[in-house]
Amino acid sequence: MPDHTESGGRPTTPLVSMADGRAVVRLNRPREHNRLEPADLAVLRETFDRVGADSSIHALVLTGTGQSFSSGFHIGALADRLAGEAEPEQDRNAFERMVDRLEALRVPTIAALNGSVYGGATDLALACDFRIGVEGIRLLMPAARLGIVYYASGIRRYVTRLGVAAAKKLFLTAQPIDTAEMLRIGYLDEVVPADDLMSRAEALAATLAANAPLAVAGLKRAINETAAGALDRDALGAVRAVCAASADHAEAVRAWTEKRARVFSGR
Q: How far apart are the C-alpha atoms of 209 and 30, rounded to whole Å?
């Protein structure tokens, strides 16, 4: 994957590269621990829309620049809102809608956690299908410290993906947990040395991209809907029929009988 990291450069909105069937999105405000500004949310939403519409992209990796993955949404923006200084057109639900868009993305997504993760960024990573972290990172959800009741879809992701006990511990105590605990509760799928993070994320993205795109998208949607208690059985039946009649299914059967690698077209 091309690496567009700006080392020591000025902070920017997220850096995006697309190559070899994969998209890499890198948060790029290292001096502010990659806090998320309103402008960043707009770039992330636009990027997710682009990826969702581009049939040549089969996986997405989300990571950060510097020592932290992300410190979450800029608390200064919350202060401006309380003081009545926020822009009138600012969407109060912009962060939630951006994270929900990531969760619903057609392609599999991987959070490559290069550093610790805080606040809303914990949900941003949780919305990804896989999370790989580096040794020595921490997680903190400070909503109770800030007097905030979290938005519905974020609570749902915490509960369905981590369990009720872990969600209560993280939200109600507002205390950090270490890498080992992140792995134990299932927040992390695996932990790797920092030097191996992007190569491991790239390898996983390649594995995901090698599978039939229509089936992957259908399976991902059905699993997410089932976890949320909202499985659309009619939609599942329709996508099963499409996949069963697809060129990719026929190619998989031929490749199996001919003992060769599969070559999927997404049709």
A: 30
Residues 47 and 158 placed together within one structural domain of the fold = yes
Query: Which neighbouring-strand residues pair with 15?
Result: 26
The reply to whether 155 and 243 lie within a common domain is no
At 82, is the pLDDT very low, low, confident or very high (cuts 50, 70, 90)?
Answer: low
Cβ neighbour number for residue 11 with a 10 Å cutoff: 17
Using pLDDT thresholds of 50, 70 and 90, give the confidence band for residue 3. very low
pLDDT at 2 over 50: no
Q: Which residue has the higher pLDDT, 87 or 98?
A: 98
Tally of domains within the chain: 2
Give 136-179 as a 3 state SS string.
CCEEECCHHHHCCCCCHHHHHHHHHHHCHHHHHHHHHHCCCEEH
The CA-CA-CA angle for residues 24, 28, 31, to 5°, reads 155
Written as six digits, the tokens of 15 are 């850096």
pLDDT per residue as tens digits for the range 97-126: 999 999 999 999 999 999 999 999 999 999
Distance of CA 27 to the CA centre of its chain: 12
- b/e per residue 90-120 (b: at least 16 CB within 10 A): eeeebbbebbbbbbebbbbbbbbbbbbbbbb
As beta bridge partners, residue 191 has 133
114 lies in which domain range?
15-209
H or E element in which residue 41 lies: helix 38-53
pLDDT digits (tens, 9 = 90+) for 122-154: 999 999 999 999 999 999 999 999 999 999 999
- Listing DSSP states for 183-222 in one string gives HHTTS-SEEE-GGGHHHHHHHHHHHHHTS-HHHHHHHHHH
